[in-house]
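Why do we care about 3D structure at all? Because function follows from shape, and shape follows, mostly, from sequence. That is the central idea of this module. The next example makes it concrete: a single protein chain, its amino acid sequence, and then its structure expressed as tokens.
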Amino acid sequence: MPEDKNPFSAVVGKMVVTKEGKRLGFVKDITFETRSGELINIVVRDSTPYTKNLNLEKTSSKEHLIPYSAIIAIGDFVIVSEEDLI
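And the structure:
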């Protein structure tokens, strides 16, 4: 059974929303472990005021990081579980 795969270019630029529909920003980049290839975080650009109130890890350039484990689905949007963010 083939897995659904999303190439990097298909994910970058998508809006990130919670499953409740709250907008968090847009995917700028994805961080991963170089040895294993394990995906770690998505880097969010243009963070909304709601995102800024969450206690999320940030990059050195103050962009928010969302754990890849919080992603529920990737389609027209990247949908994350807000419960997994806090």
